[in-house]
Amino acid sequence: MRPSNSRFTPFDGVSSLLLVGVAAFYLLFLASTAVYLGWADAAHHLARPVLWQRLGLTLSTALISTGVAMIVGIPGGYALARLPLPIPRVLATVIELPMMVPPATVGVFLIGAVATPPVAPLLKIAGISLGHSTAGVILCQVAVTTSFAVCLCAAAFASVPARVETVARTLGATWPRAALGVTLPAARNALLGATLTVFARAAAEWEAVMLFVGASRGATDVLPFAVFLDWNEGMMGGVVTMSLMSVTVATLASLGASLVRRSSRVG
Amino acid sequence: MNHRIAAFLVLLGLFVGGCARQDPPLLFHAAAGQRSALDEIGAIFEERHPGTRVNFSYKGSGYFLPDLVRSREGDLYMPGEEFYFLQARERGFIGEYDPVADVPAHFVTVLITPKGNPAGIRRLEDLARPGVRVGLGNPKSCAIGVRQEKTLRRAGILEAVLANTRMSAKCIPELGNAIQHRGIDATVVWSSTAALYLRDVEIIPLEPRHRAVVRLPVGVLTVSRNPGQARLLKDLILSPEGRSIFERHAYAVDPGPVDEEGFCTGPGPTDLLMQRLVEAARVTQDPTLEVDEKTLGPLVGEVLRQRASK
Amino acid sequence: MSVESVWFRRVLWAQLGALVLAVSWLFASNLDTLFPAGGPFAGGILSRADFWRSLNLSVLSATATALVAAALGIPAAWALSRRALAWHRGADILLGAILALPASSVGLALVLLFQYGPLDWLQAWLGVRVIYTLPGILVAQLVLALALGLQAWRAAFEALDPRLELTARTLGANSFQAFWRVALPAARPGILAGLVLAWLRAMAEFGAVLLFCSTFRELPASRFGELARWLHVDRADLLAVAMWVEIEFGRVEAGMGMAFALAMTCAACVYLVRLNGGRIRGH
Q: What are the CB-based long-range contacts (under 8 Å, 24+) for C181-184?
């Protein structure tokens, strides 16, 4: 928190106005979907089972994708945060790239990635077809969120000072033991926050799905994708209700991540 | 931590295994404008044939051929105009085609504006008036785009209307949405699309010489892996029951007299469809008016549905 | 150094190596699509004028968006950093929620915001419409770019040593001077990183633009204003949108070429920031 000062200048006024204006805009933005719809219409559409099926599909695929992303992300993030040598810039750029490019681009690259060895023969052996299937959706979500998970976990581990581990090691613990027994629990809240943020991102993913998997009712129409698909149906009510569901999921995840982060005080 | 990893791996395995064992549904390539009617027919088919699922792939008609050539997948095909059907037939994707029996219904063009008609559009020629924000379909992507171009060219106002164009839609529902949100002042769409937006549009029938009636053939693809079931679905679409569903969504089953380009040459059954459509919009927008099956005909269902909610 | 330590370090390096390998392979496995047998490189997009206009539009709009975001967001982030804790928590939640929104919901909310309610009346009164126009692209990109920038800039100001500003104050500076001459230069790496993040986020915008602006490529040139034509952004879609259109039409080589163009532009940007010592830890 900055020191407050009694020397008020026009700049204070302008910057405060901008702050309030931006905050108001974003609040209005979040609320506009609900305001447009109204209770009666919302209730009418929430009674349709297909919306809940889609919500279930979205949440379950996002859950699995988050799991995979965190399984890669926690060790990877730890490595990024703790390795004594700085990572070469080129490698760091490569690791960050999937979360910097448009997700639609990731979807396009997946087209070629699964058609080339060694992945293509593996898929054939396993009998998995990725087009128009839920497995394809999960793959898209994983591809888009894994980099993000690695970087968030790296930030989480970086917030735990290295000396905590060094102390543990001087007390006789081996490095793996120090990492698992000391650093991991200390970073637990930040990691939980990271998990929630990654989950929100996975649940919001649809552009890669659209380009890579294609639409298939019941199998690939996760909520954000369904909003885009049903946008072309004319019943705004259904579209807006689904969008409202997506917004709610995003807001709850963000709220959860904030609360969890706040309750950690390390370093 | 180990438990969590194990649990996720198990879930992943189950999901992946489950996906690998799915029975392939019938893949139906259909024009975006067909959605309202075909969704209903598909649901009836699934009810009657439990175990078979129909997966509709709705696109702008211009995208079908590249998709078919690349994926070589699909069981049924019903584009937004006969031209696309013949194109696929030329490439060997369609076998036999009976131009009379294989056409369950027709699209009819109509002018629509946002509710209240802010630009005061009365006829097709008004689209050329300076300052009017027009929406057109992309002729490369959707059947309505091709038909709009033909109509405007015949009327001699294509250049003027192009100068007024605010948006180039890749599929017809984009145009409907743009009208609904008052992003454009007017456009020409199929009557079946107009019937989806009864709450928010004003319907302006085109004069017969500007009004197009487009044939919509349906066929089983030669690359189909399940031609038996596909043929059953096609039969349902062509049956009287299927045709009545098309009528309920403001398609024209009987085209009346048309010239070789598809434009009306005189009074016909489409006049009644237009009357009913105008009436349907009026009744949906005014809750005090009574819903009368005599004036609305088969559109009664749509009116009631759209009166119920947004 | 114990045996376990050495072994552990190797495992960590191996993990990083695997990650780098996987990401590289994601991109590299598509290189062969760029060289189709019996066809031009990348489907011939390099000789297509609309490809260059699309690239132009993407870069120019992202830059414009980033600049507007900076003009709005840096002072706002400064004001935020001086507020009470409750403001910070609220900002955390609000910005986090906005950034977690799917692009389709963002686009839908923009349509609802601009076509219904107070903004609708404002536009009718002013006689302008934002939807389906090129400036609409800026608006769609700004929503998320500004949110990301705000997060980064607030963090940058927060990380400053409070004694710096205190000293400036005791030496007689008012709040604007404290901001302009002390805080801003001191936080420069973080400010620049936020700017780049905003730029990258604007480049990555796709879904919201699709719903709010539709496509522009097939419209006649007469439909665009002088400025758009002079900047060579008329009759073009954002590169990401153009890529999608190519894929939809089955022209996979062209779509892949555009995807690579996008990936290389973003990679160059990220690398440049790292060269200058900044770090990117964003979305």
A: C183/C78, C183/C157, C184/C74
How far does the CA of residue A116 sit from the closest CA of chain C (Å)? 7
| CATH code of the domain in which B154 resides | 3.40.190.10
Same domain, B33 and B158: no
Q: Are residues B225 and B208 part of one domain? A: no
Tell me the residue range of the domain where B227 lies.
Answer: 2-104+216-248
Structure tokens at B174: 């984009």
ipTM score: 0.89
Q: Same domain, yes or no, for B130 and B141?
A: yes
Q: What is the pLDDT of residue C3?
A: 63
pTM to 2 decimals? 0.89
- Delineate the domains of chain C, giving CATH numbers in brackets: 48-281 (1.10.3720.10)
Neighbours of B288 (CB within 10 A): 5
Write the burial class of residue B26 (CB in 10 Å: 0-12 exposed, 13-18 middle, 19+ buried): buried
Q: How far is A39 from chain C (nearest CA, A)?
A: 17
Q: Residue C279: what pLDDT?
A: 61
Do B165 and B75 lie in one domain? The reply is no
CB contact under 8 Å between A236 and B57, yes or no, is no
Whether the pLDDT of residue C169 is over 90: the answer is: no
Q: Provide the 3-class DSSP secondary structure of residue C94.
A: helix
Residues 20 through 79 of chain A touching chain C, CB cutoff 8 Å:
21-23, 26-30, 32-33, 35-36, 72, 75-76, 78-79
What's the pLDDT score for residue B12?
61
Query: Using the beta-carbon criterion (under 8 Å), do A234 and B180 form an inter-chain contact?
Result: yes
Of A37, A126, A216, the CB nearest to B55: A216
Q: What is the pLDDT of residues A139-175, one digit of tens each?
A: 999 999 999 999 999 989 888 888 888 888 788 777 7
Using alpha carbons, list the distances in angstroms from residue B54 to B30, C177, C262.
Answer: 12, 67, 37
pLDDT tens by residue, C13-42: 888 889 999 999 999 988 888 888 777 888
